[in-house]
Design goal:
Layout (H helix, E strand, L loop, with lengths): L1 H105 L4
Length: 110
């Protein structure tokens, strides 16, 4: 009878050990599933962030390219205006410069 009880006790211990092993394995599997899900969510967030940053970068590149074209056009207009101003001033004072040069060249020095 004592050996039956000892045998039954051993069987209970083995069953308890197997149940504990199943619990540990289930917990480990659940933990791995949560880690995998967290990793997938993090990768998704990273991809979304990268896409957002790329979109913002492309927008800024497009804006600066547009600004560059606008700057070139503005500089061309300013240059044309300055050239026109110089031509107008040169035409306005050219006769005075010619007269001054003639006077200087033709004056008699003693």
């Amino acid at each position: 009878m004592a050996s039956n009880r000892a045998q039954g006790g051993i069987q209970q211990l083995l069953a308890a050990e197997q149940e504990a092993q199943h619990i540990v394995n289930a917990a480990r599997s659940a933990k791995m599933a949560r880690l995998k899900q967290a990793k997938e969510e993090a990768e998704k967030e990273i991809a979304e962030y990268r896409a957002q940053m790329e979109l913002e970068f492309q927008r800024k590149v497009a804006e600066s390219s547009g600004d560059s074209g606008a700057n070139v056009k503005r500089l061309e207009q300013e240059t044309e205006a300055k050239i026109h101003h110089l031509k107008t001033e040169a035409a306005r004072i050219s006769q005075d410069v010619v007269n001054m040069l003639l006077k200087h060249v033709t004056s008699v020095k003693n």
